[in-house]
Amino acid sequence: MKWLKLAYANVLRNKRRTVITILITAIGMTSLLVGGGFANFTYQGLREMAARDSGHVIISHKNFVDKEEEVPMQYGIDNYQVLANEIRKNKDIRFALPRIEFSGLISNGDKSSIFLGTGVDPAGEFKVKGPFLTMVEGSVLSRREKLDEPKVIIGKGMAKSMGVSVGDSLTLMGTTTEGSLNALDVTIQGIMTTGVPEMDKRAIYVNIQTAQALLQTEKVSTLSIYLRSTDDTDAIQDYLQAQHPEYGYQTWLVKAFYYFGVKGIYDRIFGVLGVVILIMVFFSISNTVSMSVLERTREIGTLRAMGTHQWEVVRGFTLEGLVIGSFGSVLGTILGFAISMLFHVLDLQMPPPPGRSDSYPLAIDIPLVLYGTAILMSITVCMVAAWLAARKASSKSIVEALTHV
Amino acid sequence: MGTAPILQTNNLGKTYHTGDITYQALKNINLELAKGAFAALVGPSGSGKSTLLNICGLIDTCSEGELLFNGKNLKGVSNLELTNIRREQLGFIFQGFNLVPIMSIAENIEYPLFLADMPVKERRIRVADMLERVGLTRFAKNLPDNISGGQKQRVAIARALIKRPSLVIADEPTANLDTNTASTIIDLMHHMSREFNSTFIIATHDDRMSSRCDTEIHLVDGELQ
């Protein structure tokens, strides 16, 4: 404790230099926290987006993923209600939502376009989509929809291309499970945007019964399982696989191409940034301690003459690194927290990323583990830099040190 | 049977090599210092006083001959062990005082006891006693920058003697002091060497200092006269 007290007193010798070093450490630490917090917020958002799009666990026919269907719904799931009802009993599962993926032509009578359709259960589907599906006009589908008055939600790109709006009629044309053509008139219930312009030109949502009527089937393509916590994904997949080994299983990670793409880029960017910041802090501390050692060469000689071991001298300087690192970390933590709060209050928006049309919030979400890691790294870097600088400098002979001017 | 000398040198020499140039700073030094001796090391500048003092203080090593401390030959002894001997048995008084500026007067004096891992309570008692002996009790909490040169040297003497060392190395302890203060410091060192039975080797140019010593070691061109 006495050594630490000495280190603290030594740190205060040259207040101006110490303040600058602490500020550099704090700014470095704040940069780590803000950069890491931004990346963390982005990862969370992308994880949520991917998971809400596909479901955390996707149950399908065993051949659905690996083999091409010769006719629509060849590898669909029969009696999905029974399976869904059983699965919903698990308290960790929020929703078990049936989906039918289909495609065909959509027409307003004058103009036709290719569509990528999804038949959904409106009761749960639009709850799980949350902020990742925005209605531009009209409303989402209803489960109370009459079978003889089918509705559709179309992307805003498609609506613009076909010159239609809410309440207008369109015709869906698709191939049935028997391979024949079928058509169905639908009324536009709403116009939406997914945030991806290319998807908005092709995507449509219909009630699952509407999709089944068009394809003339009782099956569904997949059952999307939504969990209360994304972290339970693997455990629930294992549980479901054990309960129903006759089905095929995938997790949201398999479909999260965008998440992995962005994460890969950000990991590299923030990794390099982190290393640069730590190097900057390292050299700053190294420089401070080297100057301090140089100024105190004679004093070091005196202390060593009196019987202080070289490692005790080095320990003293390393503790000074600890003191500077600790003050820098505390200040950096406060600054990082303050900046993250400020961003929440300011509600700033980032411009849309490539391939998307929506901006997204510029928020900084710093998890506790990042605070801990950044504090640990800052203090460690300060101590290592101080240790290296002191080790080299204090190896001077005592006689030389005592005659140092 | 007489007691072993605290310090003994046998044909001790020190040679410096700088490139092709060789310089012999000390030659064939044979010296014996008894326990409790109060010895002056005198000689002109460049005679090798500081070199001999550094070797006797175990902060430098000899190139030739041998050095015995308390009867133990220090040839081949590790730096770690030399540091431990200095820590336990040696005290230093420097011309420039060499006090640690961030430590108070009391803390400067306490430092050798702190190194010796003495319990805090005992340390405080010893420091208070030593402060009283050197007449600096009321300056205990002052920093070295806030006291005079003479007072600083008294602190240095107190620091050197607080652990009751066998040997005290003093390098020109009165060189930076005025006549009256130097006289007081000489008295104090002499008095304390008697009180603690510590051996003193004092490198000095000051005749008053050497005249108070019971042994004079004359060095000229690296040789004893």
Radius of gyration of chain A equals 31 Å
Q: In percent, how helical is the residue content of chain A?
A: 40-55%
What is the rounded Rg of chain B? 18 Å
H-E order of chain B: EEEHEEHEHHHEHEHEE
Overall 3D shape of chain B? globular
Q: Structural class of the secondary structure composition of chain A?
A: alpha+beta
Q: What does the oligomeric state look like here?
A: heterodimer
Total number of strands of chain B? 10
Key phrases:
heterodimer; A: 405 residues; alpha+beta; six-stranded mixed beta barrel; two-stranded antiparallel ribbon; 14 helices; B: 225 residues; alpha/beta; six-stranded mixed sheet; four-stranded antiparallel sheet; 36% helix
Walk me through this protein's architecture.
The complex is a heterodimer of chains A (405) and B (225). Chain A is an alpha+beta fold. In chain A, 53% of the residues lie in helices and 19% in strands. Chain A contains 14 helices and twelve strands. In chain A, strand 6 and strand 7 (181-193) form a beta hairpin. Chain A is elongated and about 100 Å long. With 225 residues, chain B is α/β, with parallel strands linked by helices. Helix content of chain B is 36%, strand content 27%. Chain B has helices at 49-56, 79-89, 105-115, 120-133, 149-161, 179-196, 207-212; strands spanning 7-18, 21-33, 38-42, 64-69, 72-73, 90-93, 167-171, 199-203, 215-220, 223-224. In chain B, the strands form two sheets. A six-stranded mixed sheet of chain B has the order 6-7-8-3-9-10. In chain B, a hairpin with a 2-residue loop joins strand 4 and strand 5. Chain B is globular, with a radius of gyration of 18 Å. Chain B starts with 6 loop residues before the first strand and ends with a strand. The A-B interface holds A 2, 6, 9-10, 12-13, 298-299, 302-310, 397-399, 402 and B 54, 57, 59-60, 79-80, 83-84, 86-88, 90-92, 94, 96, 98, 100-103, 111-112, 114-115, 159.
